Amino acid sequence: MLGRRSLLAYAGGTAAAALSHRAFAGSADHLDVAYINARVWTGAGPDVRTDAIGLKGNRIAAIGADAVRARTGKRTRVINLQGAFVTPGFIDPHVHFVKASTMLSQPSLRDAADPKEFIARVAAAAKALPKGQWLEGGNWDQDRWGGEMPNKAWIDPVTPDTPVAVIRYDLHMLLLNSLALKLAGIDRNTPDVPGGVIERDATGEPTGIIKDAAKDLVLRAIGDPTPEQIDAATRQGIQLALSKGVTQVHPTELETISFDSTRRLHEKGETGIRFRHYLPLKDWETQLALIKREGRGDDWVQWGACKVVFDGSLGSRTARFYEPYADDPSTRGIIVTDPEDLRRWIQGADKAGLQVTAHAIGDEANDIVLDTMAEVAKANGPRDRRFRVEHVQHMKQHALPRFKEQGIIASVQPYHAIDDGRWAVRRIGEERLLTSFAFGSLVRSGAHVCMGSDWPVAPIDPLTGLDAAVNRETLDGKNPQGWHPEQRITLAQAMHSYTQEGAYAGFNEKKLGLIAPGFIADLVVWDSDFFAIDSHSLTKAKVLRTIVDGVQRFG
Fold first, then answer.
1. 520 to each of 31, 525, 548, how far by Cα in Å?
2. Nearest Cα to 471, choosing from 483, 457, 461?
3. Pick from 494, 518, 389, 359: nearest CA to 87
4. Where in the chain is the domain with CATH 2.30.40.10?
5. Of 153, 289, 293, 435, which one has the fewest beta carbons inside 10 Å?
6. Is the pTM of this model over 0.85?
7. What percent of the chain has pLDDT over 70?
8. Which residues of the chain form CATH 3.10.310.70?
C-alpha cells in the first residue's frame, strides 16, 4: 500500500490514476512466500550469508531481511524458520536411480559380517519369496570378512528352488547360485564375454561370480520389471532423496529404464525432484533423434547427455591399471569398451552437440579417456562441451592437472574414498594410493569438481559425502586423522561441489545451485548450521524441509 507521502505527490485525477496503478503494481510485486529468521548459506562464496529469502512463484525474488520485508504484503505467507540453517538444494550428479530405488525393497547383505551371516540372510530372503522368483538385491561386501570371495557352493544348499543373483555393492559383480547359472545359460562351455568376466575354478566350472559386461547374460534371463513396478520404486527413491536434501539427480545408467520412468511420472506431475539423464553413449544417434522430435526436456526432466563405461571397479579387480594388482598379479583389470568404439562414439555424440561422460577408475583407464577426449575436442573444434569423467579414482601424477587444462569435469564420489580406503592398499599398494581419490589436488588445480554418491554404491545422503570429503576417516575407524589427509578439502569447497558444481556439470548453473534472485527456489532447511558444528557431527544433521520449485515437498 502507498503511504501518505506517496499520496501527496499527486494531484486531482492524475493522483487517483497513479494511486490505482501503483496499488496494483505493488500487490503484484508482493512475495508469495517469505522465509525469515534464517541462517542462510547462499553458495555465492565460502562465507556469504543472509537471513531471509523471498519467493515469487518458483523463483527466488529477494534475499535479506530488508529486501524481503519491503516486498511482504497481506497475501505473503511468512514462515519463521527460528534460526534454522538453509542451503541450496543438493545436486547428486551420479546415481543409478531405478536400480537403487528397487533395492530399497530387496534384501540387504551390505553389513553381513562373515560368510555364515551372509548365507543365513540369503536363506531367509529366499524362504520369503515364492518358488522360482529371482532373489536380487544384496550389495554384499566380501572385504567385511577379510576378502574371501563368495561362491555358488555357499548358497546352493539354502536356495534349491530360488534363482539368486545378488550384486556386490560396487554394481560390477554378481553372485549366482547354480539354478541362476542354469537359467542364464552359463556353464563351463560358455565363452568369455568381451569386457566381462565369468569367474571359473581350477576345473573350468563357473564359481557363480560374474563381472561387468558378463552381467548382461544374467540380466536378460531375469527380465525387466513392469513399468508399474518401476514407477512405484522411483516414487520411493524420490521420497528418500527429498528426505536427504537432494533436489536434483543425474541418473547415469546404461539403460533407459530410469529415463522412461521419470518421463511417465513427469506427465502425471509426480516428479518431485529434478532429473538430468545420461543415456547410453552407444545409442547417441537414437537420443539425437529424440531431441530433434521433442527438444531436451525441461527443468524437471532433462536429456541431451551420454555415458559410457570404460573399465570396471577396484573392488572387483576390473579397474584398468598400468601395473598388475598387488593382490592378484595375474590381472591389471579390464577394458569394458573397445577404445576405438570409445573414440568413434564420443566424436559422433560431441559433434552432434551432446554432452559426454565416461566411467574411468584405473590410472590407465583415466589416461585413455582423457587422451580420447583431447583428440575429439581438437577434431571437433572449440565449444562449451563440458566433458565429464565419472569416478576419477586412481591416476598418475601427470593426469591431475589435465582436468583443468582440458576443461573436463571431475565427477567424484567422496564416500568411495572412506569405503575403499579400508582395503585399497591390498589391491594396489601404497604408491598408487598417493594419487588416488585426489579430491584436494583436483579442487586446488582449479578444475570443476562435482560430488555425488553413486547411489546405491553409497548412500544418497549428501552429508555422508561432505563428511568423507572433509574428514576422510575410513569406515573401519583406523584413520582418525584422515586417510591421505593431504587430499581433504574444506567444508565450503565440498558444499560448492555439491551445489554449484553439480549445477554446472548439467548446464544448469544459471538457475540452480545458488540462493540468489532469479534462481529457481530449490532450498533445504536443516536443524544444524554445518559451519557452526564439529565436522564429525555433520552426518547427525537432519532435514527439516526440502523445497523444490518453490513448493515444500518434505518436512
1. 14, 16, 8
2. 483
3. 494
4. 31-89+514-555
5. 293
6. yes
7. 95
8. 98-222
Three-state SS at 216: helix
Three cell numbers written together for 458: 553409497
CA angle 200–202–206, rounded 5-degree value? 20
d(CA 295, CA 443): 34
Yes or no: say if 321 and 333 are a contact pair by the CB < 8 Å rule: yes
At 42, list the grid cell: 547462499
Report the alpha-carbon distance of residue 393 to residue 413 in Å, rounded. 9
- Cβ neighbours for 196, distance < 8 A, ≥ 6 positions apart: 210, 211, 212, 213, 214, 215, 216, 334, 336
| Grid cell listed for 372 | 580420447
Residues recorded for the chain:
555
Tens digits of residue pLDDT in 463-503: 999 999 999 999 999 999 999 999 999 999 999 999 999 99
Report whether CATH 3.40.630.30 matches the domain 31-89+514-555. Answer: no
pLDDT digits over 400-421, tens only? 999 999 999 999 999 999 999 9
Which SS3 state, helix, strand or coil, does residue 88 take? strand
For 342-360, b where at least 16 C-beta lie within 10 A, e where not — what string? bbebbbbbbeeebbbbbbb
